[in-house]
Design brief:
Oligomer: heterodimer
Largest sheet of chain B: 4 strands, parallel
Distance between the termini of chain A: 59 Å
Number of domains of chain B: 2
Shape of chain A: globular
CATH topology of the largest domain in chain B: Rossmann fold
Distance between the termini of chain B: 33 Å
CATH architecture of the largest domain in chain B: 3-Layer(aba) Sandwich
Strand content of chain B: 5-15%
Number of domains of chain A: 1
Helix content of chain A: 55-70%
Largest interface: A-B, 38 and 42 residues
Number of helices of chain B: 12
Strand content of chain A: under 5%
Largest sheet of chain A: none
Chain lengths: 154, 308
């Protein structure tokens, strides 16, 4: 199986499904790890574009994914619900590279598979949030679903 | 936080631990007793405001949580232990809001006066989680000495959920370096269960969203998120997902069943409260820690592992 770069959020989830379920494919692990990270960017681009903004090309800590997350969370702390998910995606991509540099293909493949699972989570979360914007409001930003001016005590 | 301060603390179980999370209540108390720790339940405690009140008016939620802190203070405690992530989060948030938001202070004073009690002032009572309590009051070294039935050979993925670490600003004691909890990669549950002999697996979705707050309004979304958490745990080699929150626990259990029914995706990982695992490691029976109350039936698995 040869991996194709996804064009949209559904494509990113499909890519994650493919990598998570397939122990053997033709793409080299590091290339696949980079593709998964790129698919994460596609997911966050969908979120940023849905908010009417142009996805940034900048990088944070050397990764565009983290810059996109920061952009997506600006003024919307509920998006921090996927902050650690994004960081895990970067971390796992790096572990794949490190494992390969140490000649440990089994570890590289294991972490590639984990990276796919994390990408799937990011896709499901952002897809869910595009469908129901309140996802993450209650817990991750500790923000009520109703606006402040509708409260009883005001 | 000095461990000796934590031998006897105020206990705020919260509503969930009297209902769906009863096994967590039972196992928390049993573990405390086994470790020689004392929990004194708050007298006449009330709901922390949970999801419902917070969604109507967050200031009232702040008052409700503050009233519980006030009760702890009146009972002579400077620490209150809340094992439920939702309660823990709300009490922490109330503490933060009363220290930083004049409007919250004003509303708290107004409602407290109407209710006929003194308004809680921030800084009097520290809210801690069950994980803080056990880790700080006993510590891994002492825990390891007290283990009677090691969890050796049991592969565990520790799932902390969202409210234990987010939003970061309401947890000022976290991320303070060695010995403190991390909001990015929490580890207190890992540390405690490792001391009991468990083999913690690398699990990249420790704090990932389970869609819990939308479990009823959009069950399919929650099921997909939970299924991915469970499948990831299994891909990491876990036989058990350990939880430390009744909402996470119930969500994982319910959606594990629902994923099989609705999506035809069967998973086998067992879901247990960390206090249940720790309790059995300390020599308590499976029934003593309420394993039979879990929806996820792990009795045969535990028997096979020589526990319970």
């Amino acid at each position: 199986m040869t991996l194709q770069a996804p064009l949209d959020l559904d494509g990113a989830i499909a890519l994650a499904d493919a990598v998570a379920s397939s122990a053997a494919f033709d793409t080299a692990p590091l290339d696949a790890a980079k593709q998964l990270l790129g698919a994460g960017e596609v997911v966050l681009e969908a979120w940023v574009e849905a908010a009417g903004a142009v996805p940034t090309e900048e990088e944070v800590e050397g990764y565009r994914l983290l810059a996109l997350h920061r952009q997506g969370a600006k003024g919307n702390p509920t998006f921090n619900a996927c902050r650690e998910t994004c960081r895990e995606l970067v971390y796992l991509r790096n572990v794949v590279e490190m494992s390969l540099s140490e000649g440990d293909l089994a570890q590289a493949r294991h972490h590639l598979m984990l990276e796919a699972h994390v990408l799937r989570h990011l896709g499901l979360f952002v897809g869910g949030k595009l469908h129901e914007s309140g996802l993450g409001d209650f817990c991750c930003s500790s923000r009520p679903l109703h606006s402040a001016d509708s409260t009883i005590t005001n | 936080m000095d461990g000796s301060d934590l031998k006897k603390v105020a206990y705020y179980p919260g509503c969930a631990l009297e209902g769906t999370g009863h096994a967590y209540n039972r196992s928390t108390k049993a573990v405390g007793k086994s470790l020689g720790l004392e929990l004194v339940e708050l007298e006449n405690w009330n709901c922390c405001g949970a999801m419902e009140v917070k969604n109507v008016d967050p200031k009232i939620q702040t008052y409700l949580s503050a009233r519980n802190l006030s009760i702890a203070e009146d009972m002579g405690f400077d620490k209150v232990m809340a094992p439920c992530n939702g309660c823990y989060h709300n009490l922490k948030k109330a503490e933060y809001d009363l220290a930083n938001d004049p409007k919250s202070v004003e509303v708290n004073e107004r409602i407290s006066a109407k209710a006929g009690h003194d308004a809680y002032k921030p800084g009097k009572v520290e809210t801690i989680h069950a994980l803080d309590w056990i880790k700080k009051a006993v510590g891994e070294e002492e825990l390891a000495k007290r283990v009677q039935n090691s969890l050796k050979g049991i592969k565990v993925a520790n799932y902390y959920g969202c409210m234990y670490t987010r939003p970061r600003h309401i947890f000022p004691e976290k991320d303070k370096g060695p010995g403190t909890e991390s909001t990015a990669k929490p580890h207190f549950m890992d540390d405690i269960l490792a001391a009991a002999g468990a083999e913690n697996v690398e699990f990249p979705l420790k704090t990932a969203c389970c869609g819990g707050a939308h479990s009823l309004s959009d069950s399919d979304m929650s099921t997909k998120l939970v299924l991915n958490i469970i499948e990831t745990a299994e891909a990491c080699g876990a036989e058990v997902i350990a939880t430390e929150c009744p909402t996470c626990h119930t969500g994982l259990e319910m959606h594990q069943v629902r994923a099989e029914k609705v999506l035809g995706r069967k998973t086998n990982v067992k879901i247990l409260y960390f206090t249940q695992l720790l309790g059995m490691a300390l020599g308590l029976s499976a029934s003593k820690v309420g394993v039979q109350e879990n929806l996820s039936d792990s009795r045969a698995f535990l028997k096979e592992k020589g526990l319970g």
